[in-house]
User: Fold these one by one.
Assistant:
Number 1:
Amino acid sequence: MVKAVVGANWGDEGKGKITDMLGKESDIIVRFQGGANAGHTIVNDYGKFALHTLPSGVFYGHTTSIIGNGVALDVPRLFEEIKSIVDRGVPMPKILVSDRAQMVMSYHKNFDAYEEERLGGKSFGSTKSGIAPFYSDKYAKIGFQVSELFDDDLLREKVVRIAEQKNVLLEHLYHKPLIDPDELYKELMSYKEMVEPYVCNVSLFLHNALKEGKNILLEGQLGSLKDPDHGIYPMVTSSSTLAAYGAIGAGIPPYEIKQIITVCKAYSSAVGAGAFVSEIFGDEADELRNRGGDGGEYGATTGRPRRVGWFDCVASKYGCRMQGTTDVAFTVLDVLGYLDEIPVCVGYEINGEVTTEFPVTHLLEKAKPVFKTLPGWKTDIRGIKKYEDLPENCRNYIEFIEKEIGYPITMISNGPGREDIIYRNR
Ligand code: GDP
C-alpha cells in the first residue's frame, strides 16, 4: 500500500509532522522530488529537528529512508544531516539512495547565486541551493547520475565536456572563477566514497517491497502552487510537487498510490516572491507570524520571515484538486485560538468578476481577495483528542473550509508533536 503526503499550497503546511506521525505504520519512506532547498520541522521524543534532505521517517528504527531518483541529491548535505541527527542520539537510520538520482554539484550552487546576483531586484528569491541549475542540467542531459560515479571512463571524459560548457558562461556572462575539470573529478570521487554503501536499484527494491505487502510513504516537498506546470509559474520550484510525480520520482506504478494526504495549514504562508492573494501586512501579520507554526513562521532552511495571510479556499481547492486528494490533513489550527474573528478568502475578484477557480499567473496577479469572516473560538485547543471536544466555532471553521474546498478533512493537527492529532471519519 502506498500513501503520499503532499502540500496544497506554497509548502510549510506541516508535511514533516504528518509524515513523522504516519511513519509509525510505514516500512519505507521515500523522498521523490526537490532537494535541500526547503525544510521540514519535526518535533518528537528526540527533540526538534529541521530536515532538508532526509525523509521525515528517519526517527523510527523500523523504517527504511529512501532518496528517490527524482530528488536533487546534495551528497555532502545528506551526510551532514545524518551526522547531525545521530549526534543528537537518534539511531543511525537505514538509508538507500537511488542509483538513478542525480547529484547537485558545487557549481550548481554557484550558478544559483550568480544568477540571483545578475537578476538583482528581479530575482526569484532562490535559496541558492543549486536546485534550478541542477534540474536544468538534468533535463538538458548534462547532469551527473549516481550510477555514473561507477563508470570511470565516462566520468573522466564528461568532467572535461561539462567544464568546457560551464566555463563559457562563467567567463562571459558571470565573470567568475572557472571550473577545473580535475577539481570536478575530485569532487565526484568524494561523493562516490560517501554514497557508495547506500546505492540501490530503488525501483526494483520498491517493486519487491510492494509484492511483500509493505507500507510505503511518499513524502513531498513544497506544495501544489510551487509545481512547475500547475503552480504560479515562474514563481515555482524546479521539480513537480504533485503526488502523481511520486510514481516517477520513486519508480513505482501510478496506480499503486492509494491514499493522497494533502496537507493544508489553517492559514496561509509563503516564502519568496510571487502573487499571494490573501496576504496580510503590518501588525496583524506580525502577530500571526510570531504565533504561527511552532515558534513563528520563519523558514526552516533560511530563517527568512515567511509571508502570512488568511486561509485561501480558492488556492487550497485547486491545490487539493491537482494533488488528487483523498484526505486533507488540516494543520496548525491551534495557532488561530487568539482571534476574535477569522477572515477566510472565499473568492478572487479579477477584472470586476468573482471566481472560485484558481487562475493562471497574470490573472492571479490582478486578483483581489473576497473575504468572509467567521467567529473565532478564543481558546487553546492543544491537547484535545476528539473532534466533538473542539469548540463549536472551531468545528464550524473546519466544516466551512471543508465545504469550500470540497475534500474531506480527516485529520486535524492541533500542535507540533506526533500525538497532537485528531482523526475524523468522513
Ligand atoms: P513542511 O515543510 O510542510 O513540513 O512544514 P514546516 O516544517 O516548514 O512548517 C510547519 C511548522 O509548523 C513546523 O515548525 C512544525 O513543527 C509546526 N507544526 C506542524 N503542525 C503543527 C500544528 O498542528 N500546530 C502547531 N502549532 N505547529 C505545527
Number 2:
Amino acid sequence: MTALVKMTYSDVDLDAVAALGGLIAIFVGADGKLDSCARKVNTLSRKAVERLVASDAFAGLSEGSALRLAFPTGVTAAGVIVVKLERRPSVEAARLAGAALALEKGPLDMTVLAGNIGKLADVALGLALRDYDFNAHKTAEPKARGAVAFMSSKLDGFDPKSVSAIAEGVFFTRDLTNEPANVLTTSNFADRLAEMQALGLKVEVLEEAELEKLGMGALLCVGQGSESPSKVVVMQWNGGGDEAPFALVGKGVVFDTGGISIKPAAGMEDMTMDMGGAGVVSGVMKTLALRKAKANVVGVVGIVENMPSGNAVRPGDVVTSMKGDKIEVVNTDAEGRLVLSDVLWYTQERFRPVGMINLATLTGAIIIALGHENAGVFSNSDDLSGAFIKAASAEGEGAWRMPLSAAYDKMINCRIADMRNTGGGRDAGSITAAQFLARFVKPETPWAHLDIAGVASIKGGTKLAPAGATGWGVMALNRLISDRYEA
Ligand code: BES
Ligand code: MN
Ligand code: ZN
C-alpha cells in the first residue's frame, strides 16, 4: 500500500521561520499583497519575496501554481516556494496549490506557512493526492519523500482525518488499478479486500461453488477460461440505522485479453486496469470506514479474469444469468457487462438498495465519445444521476450524462436467445453496453452506470495524479454519500 506523505499541523510560529530546514512555502494572491507569513520571509530574505511577486513570472502564473526562490539569503531553508493563491480560494485552486507543493517538495521536508488561508484541507488533500508514486515494482530504494508541516491560524475544527480518509481511499483504488495482473490475481484482490475487516467493514468472499448455486452463469462464463477462480466480494459498511443500504457495484476484470475474441497485442498490457470499477468501489468503502460514515453502504464487486483457453467461453455460446435471462455471447470481449449483469441482480435481490451505482471500464467507445475528461453517466433516474454529477463537479471529477432508450435497447435483441452481449457493430457502443446492464436493473431501483474506461487510468496523468491510475470517482461517490445518505 502506497503510504500518504506525513502531514502535521500546528499554529503559526513566525519566530521559528529563520531557522527552518528543508523548504518553506508561502501563499500570495494575484494582488501581490503579502500576509504576515510572507512578510516575515520577505524581511528575512531581504525582500526577495517582494521582487519575485513584482516579476512578470509571478504575474503570468495561474492560480494554484508556484515559483521557487532557491537558497535565498537570510533563512536556513534551501528554498522558498511562493504559491499564487487567493486568501479565500476555490476548492479547485486550493487543491492545485497543494499539488504544486507536492511537485516542488521532492525529498526535502517542507513547512507550509498557511497563515489564515482558507480551504486548508483542500490544500493538504491536493498535496497528498499528487504526492502518490506507485513504486512497488522498482527495485531501487524508493526516493525519500519529505514530510510536510502546516502552520495555520485556522486549525479550529480542522480534522486531519477528513483529509487522510479520502486520500487513503484514493490511494487504495490507485494501487489496485496500477497493480499488474500476475500480482493482483482474483484471489489476491479478494484477500486485499478481506483485510479491510480490520477497519470495521464486513467482508464476504463468495467462491465459485456459491456463485454456481446462485445461478451466476453470465459472470462465471467470463472466468471459465482462466486458472484463477472467479469471485464476488461483498463489503458492508453499516454506519447508519436499519434503513436499506445504498449500493456500489464494480467490474473487477483483473485482466481482459478479450478471451477467444482476443484483443490485438498492441496496448493489451493496459488491460491490467480493467478492474478499475471494482477498485473505485473498494476505495470508497475504505474511505467510508476510515471516516466512520453515518450511512449504510454495500459494495459488491465481481472479480474474474478473461482468458482464452480450451475451456473458455466461445462466441455463440448461450449462458443463463442469475436473473434467468439467456444471453448469446457473440463477442467474448464484451465481458464486463456479463459480469455486472449477475452482480447487479444479486445486489438488488439480496439488499433491496435505496439506490445503486455501478462503475466499470466497460467500453472503448466511451473514450471515443468523451476522451479522458469525463466518465459516461447512464441512468434511469434524473434525481440520482443529477446528484451524482453535481457531487462529481464539486470534486473536480468529470462526469457527463449519456442517453438510454428503447431504440438502443432493440439493438441487443437476439435471434436465438433473450439478448446478445453486443449491439452487433460499433454504433453507439457504450450505449448498447449500458442498455444491456439496464435489463438487469429493477424498475424500482434508482440506478446509474458510470463507464470509466477513459478516466480510470490516464497515461499523461491529471492535475492531481501522476501517470497511471487516477482514483477517479472515489471523491465524488464519497461526497454523494455524505450529501445524500448521511444525517
Ligand atoms: N475492458 C474493455 C473496455 C476498455 C477499453 C477499457 C479500453 C479500457 C480501455 C471491454 O471489456 C471491451 O473489451 N469492450 C469492447 C466491447 C466490444 C467487444 C463490443 C470494446 O470496447 O471494444
Ligand atoms: Mn473486453
Ligand atoms: Zn473489459
